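Thread: quick sanity check before group meeting

JM: Hey all, I'm pulling together slides for Thursday and realized we never actually wrote out the predicted structure for the chain we discussed last week. Dropping the sequence here so it's in one place. If anyone has concerns about the input, flag it before I start.
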Amino acid sequence: MHEASIVLGIMSIVEEEVKRLHLNKVNKITMCLGEFTCAEVQTLRDCFELVAEPTLAAEAELIIESVKATAECNRCRKVFPVKKQEMECPYCGSKTMRLKSGRELYVKSFEAD
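JM (edit): ok, ran it. Output follows.
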């Protein structure tokens, strides 16, 4: 269950910024999660509730923005949505591509008082 370590990392980032800015309470944390990160959204939410409870983020809302996976074809250079089981360019049929999005995992923002 790597979701727990993800949430611990998120909380570490937010807590560091809250201390640096001399804030007292975290109201909302927004994170971006690519569909190829293999993290389960509900498990992230459950872990967040447990980890945030004894912190300044105890009542914070966790917003998870999903980022769709896209790739760029190495042959025709077109960008298109991809799924793990469909790794072929829909324009030219090439199987060589570079993932452009879908692996994101970061804190986008947070709101605090």
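AS: nice. The chain has a mean pLDDT of 94. The domain at 3-68+102-112 is CATH 3.30.2320.50 (hypothetical protein PF0899 fold).
JM: adding both to the slides.
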